[in-house]
Design goal:
The protein has 126 residues and is an all-alpha fold. It has one domain (3-120). The chain has four helices and no strands. The radius of gyration is 25 Å and the shape is rod-shaped. The two termini are 19 Å apart. This is HIG1 domain-containing protein. Keywords: Membrane, Transmembrane, Transmembrane helix. The chain crosses the membrane at residues 25-44, 56-76.
Length: 126
């Protein structure tokens, strides 16, 4: 699999994660906002006098907050996971190249990755 197709796959996975987490976050905070609006309506006379539009605006603010921060949290977690995987792979490549007496430059690491991918392909075909 080429590097570009791997990046495209990772971007699609990140998009799916963000979408799912955003929807979940929005649903969660909408419920919180609705609950607080109902409680505020029954317990606070100043809030009770507000129009439905203002109450809806407050609830939609909760919804947007949950959507944005839920999606952002999921993306940050995904990026951290990918970064850790990449760092572990690069460390493995540097160690393997050092055993061969080579310095782990970007070019050498890219060649090592290609070799590893072809070895994995050969093992699965056998």
């Amino acid at each position: 699999m080429s590097r570009r197709s791997q990046q495209k796959e990772a971007a699609e996975e990140a998009y799916q994660l963000q979408t799912r987490a955003g929807i979940e976050g929005a649903a969660r905070t909408t419920a919180i906002g609705l609950g607080l609006a109902v409680i505020g309506h029954h317990l606070w006379p100043a809030f009770r006098r507000q129009t439905v539009a203002i109450k809806g605006f407050l609830v939609s603010g909760f919804t947007i907050f949950g959507l944005v921060f839920g999606a952002e949290r999921a993306l940050v977690e995904f990026e951290n996971k990918k970064r850790r995987e990449e760092n572990a792979l690069r460390q493995e490549a540097r160690i393997a190249l050092a055993r061969r007496g080579l310095i782990g430059t970007e070019t050498e690491i890219a060649q090592w990755r290609t070799e590893q991918a072809s070895e994995r392909t050969n093992k699965t075909e056998s």
